[in-house]
């Protein structure tokens, strides 16, 4: 699969947009989901599951809810997994 980090970030953003009741267009790539945006763990898990299905990667190892995560960080992790397949 040939996908860019930018495309992955757009997918994460659109998934967040569906799951949250806020305008996610103002969220920067580096804002942390929980610490800065107040995203709950259910939304984060759904984002991970959507990305797993979309890109055919296993993110079980990356799904550590206690660790800070941003759109940029998640997109890079997914991209690295996609290109290493």
Task: Give an account of the 3D structure.
With 85 residues, this protein is mainly α. The protein has a single domain (5-18, 28-83), classed as Non-ribosomal Peptide Synthetase Peptidyl Carrier Protein, Chain A (Orthogonal Bundle). It contains three helices and no strands. Helix 1 packs across helix 3.
Characteristics of this structure?
85 residues, Non-ribosomal Peptide Synthetase Peptidyl Carrier Protein, Chain A
CATH fold-level name = Non-ribosomal Peptide Synthetase Peptidyl Carrier Protein, Chain A
Q: Sheet bearing the most strands, described?
A: none
CATH architecture group name: Orthogonal Bundle
Count of beta strands = 0
Which class best fits the helix and strand makeup?
mainly alpha
Number of helices: 3
Provide the gyration radius in Å: 12 Å
Give the fraction of residues assigned to helices.
40-55%
CATH superfamily: ACP-like
Overall pLDDT level: 91
What is the strand and helix layout of this fold?
Elements (H helix, E strand, L loop, with lengths): L4 H15 L21 H15 L15 H13 L2
Kindly summarize this structure in a few lines.
The protein is an all-alpha fold and 85 residues long. Helices cover 51% and strands 0% of the residues.
């Amino acid at each position: 699969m040939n996908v860019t980090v930018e495309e992955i970030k757009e997918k994460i953003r659109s998934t967040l947009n569906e799951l949250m009741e806020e305008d996610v267009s103002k969220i920067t790539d580096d804002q942390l989901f929980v610490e800065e945006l107040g995203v709950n763990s259910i939304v984060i898990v759904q984002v991970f599951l959507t990305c797993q299905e979309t890109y055919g990667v296993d993110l079980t190892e990356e799904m550590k809810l206690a660790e800070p995560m941003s759109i940029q960080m998640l997109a890079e992790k997914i991209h690295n997994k996609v290109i290493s397949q």
